[in-house]
Amino acid sequence: MNTLVVDYSHIHSGEFKENVYCPSEDTFLFVDALQRDVEFLRSCEIALALEIGSGSGYISTYLLMLLCQPAHQTPDANTEDDICVYSNDRIEGVKHKHQHGKDVPMVIALDINRFANMATLTTAQRNRTADNINAVTMDMFSALSSCRCKAMVDLILFNPPYVPSNDDDCGGSSIDLAWNGGHMGRDVIDRFINSVGVGSDTRHPLLVEKRNDVSSVLNMIAMHGFHAEIILSRQIIGETLYIIRFSRV
Fold first, then answer.
1. How many domains does the chain have?
2. Residue 48 domain-assigned?
3. What does the alpha-carbon distance between residue 99 and residue 40 come to, in Å, rounded to a whole number?
4. Which CATH number does the domain housing residue 178 bear?
5. Mean pLDDT over residues 154-170, rounded?
6. According to the model, what pLDDT value does residue 101 have?
7. The Cα angle at residue 90 between residues 12 and 157, in degrees rounded to 5
């Protein structure tokens, strides 16, 4: 099996090193889940994907690389390699960009951290996916509040800040925003579930950790009319990670 090799070496230096979350075990578990679902994702003919909290741009880039590959060249699901992209285009101007590549979706990578958006574009440029990624500085769905805007999105990816913390634990820096999940690690996760409201039948992956009270997360998703299931888990030092895949019932 081939392995996708994503170049994210730039994340280890300069402003990125101090301000952008470097791909780690949670990132690699997330792309493993995408790999497991690759045939379904291809069958959906995704036109527009949205990654919230894109950080380095690894996941968005990996998704594009994965979908660009011929079916017989899909990589091993245990890969730990990366990719990315960055752009300042307004959302109104990117929704039709996917037409430049007939079978390749357009990805809008959102992050509240401007350094993360620059890192995402750089990753994309290094890995030749820049034509299909736009990085936008935005807090979750703040500019996509209407149902019409959300209905345009075929796939939403979210590897959220999930580490439980108190206000005193977070210094408010750019990098802190990538891990600080607040009370039980649920502040951002709950806000996402309460506002996602997608109408597509596509499966949407969400990463959570054991301390987030996974059963409660699943129940909350169900209360919003979604079917949710755990499709992948991994135990690492100090954490047990889960990928939840949810879609409209």
1. 1
2. yes
3. 21
4. 3.40.50.150
5. 86
6. 42
7. 55
Does residue 211 belong to any structural domain of this protein?
Answer: yes
Question: HEC states along 94-143?
Answer: CCCHHHHCCCCCEEEEEECCHHHHHHHHHHHHHCCCHHHEEEEECCCCCC
- 88 lies in which domain range? 9-248
The predicted model scores a pTM of: 0.84
Q: The tokens of 107 are what?
A: 């990805």
Secondary structure of the chain in HEC code, one letter for each residue:
CECCCCCCHHHHCHHHHHHCCCCCHHHHHHHHHHHHCHHHHHHCCCCEEEEECCCCCHHHHHHHHHHHCCHHHCECCCCCCCCCCCCCCCHHHCCCHHHHCCCCCEEEEEECCHHHHHHHHHHHHHCCCHHHEEEEECCCCCCCCCHHHHHCCCEEEECCCCECCCHHHCCCCCCHHHCECCHHHCHHHHHHHHHCCCCCCCCEEEEEEHHHCHHHHHHHHHHCCEEEEEEEEEEECCEEEEEEEEEEC
Domain for residue 3, yes or no? Answer: no
Residue 200 within a domain: yes
pLDDT for 176-213, tens place per residue? 888 899 999 999 999 999 988 765 567 899 999 999 99
Residue given tokens 């499709």 in the structure block: 231
